[in-house]
Amino acid sequence: MEIKNIIFDYGKIIINLDFNLTRIAFEKEGVSNFNDMFSEFSHLPFFYLFDCGLICEEEFRIHLRTATGLPLSDSTINNCWNAMLLDIPKSRMKYIEEIKKSYNTFLLSNTNSIHLNFISNYLQKEFGINDIDVKFNKAYYSCQVGLRKPDEKIFQLVMEENNLVPQETLFIDDSAVNVETADQLGMHVILLMENEILEDKINEYLLLHKEAVLH
Q1: Which position among 2, 11, 164, 184 has the lowest Cβ density within 10 Å, counted as fewest Cβ atoms?
Q2: pTM for this prediction
């Protein structure tokens, strides 16, 4: 079947990330056990709760102070937590705008309100927009919908709300477990590896799929 819809992850797909920078920032503040609390692949339960919007920012910071045993200020925690967020290349933003002309596009992100506030300020400064959702048909953030990848329920939410057919939908993420869920639900998938170029991977996949459909 022809691909009509594309669902993008946010971190490492649209916006560049470096989790190590957050660890370094916390270590500079005296946090010696940050990797035990949080990494790209595992974390303490309160990080999950915050990503799902089940605890507020102040509760998140209280949990973090308890876990570190340090009286870190709100601004220190926010700045360290946001250190992982880098940039969105202008060429990537232009590509997202262009591909939306031919496909229904969606954003599906595990994220939290502290990160979204930081990114909003960045987007306003660099692109003159408050939220990247204006570049997609619709954006879904875990902290706003109360669900988080790789839970299949968040994928089903996107599919059902927008009447998407899995076999007509391409999902791109940098996490193998997220891609596995999308694949099990019948979607086309791209697992973007480090140093691979998003635009090239999508264009290559779409071209090969079109050729396969024609034959």
Answers
A1: 2
A2: 0.94
> What DSSP assignment string belongs to 46-61?
HHHHHHTTSS-HHHHH
In contact, 6 and 106? CB cutoff 8 Å: yes
Q: Domain with 25 in it: what CATH number?
A: 1.10.150
> How many structural domains are present in the chain?
2
- pLDDT, one tens digit for every residue, the chain (215 residues): 899 999 999 999 999 999 999 999 999 999 988 888 887 666 889 999 999 999 999 999 999 999 999 999 999 999 999 999 999 999 999 999 999 999 999 999 999 999 999 999 999 999 999 999 999 999 999 999 999 999 999 999 999 999 999 999 999 999 999 999 999 999 999 999 988 999 999 999 998 888 787 76
First to last CA, the chain: 12
d(CA 73, CA 158): 37
Q: Find out whether 120 and 130 touch, Cβ atoms under 8 Å.
A: yes
Q: Do 60 and 125 belong to one domain?
A: no
Could you list the residue range(s) of the whole structural domain that residue 46 is in?
19-82
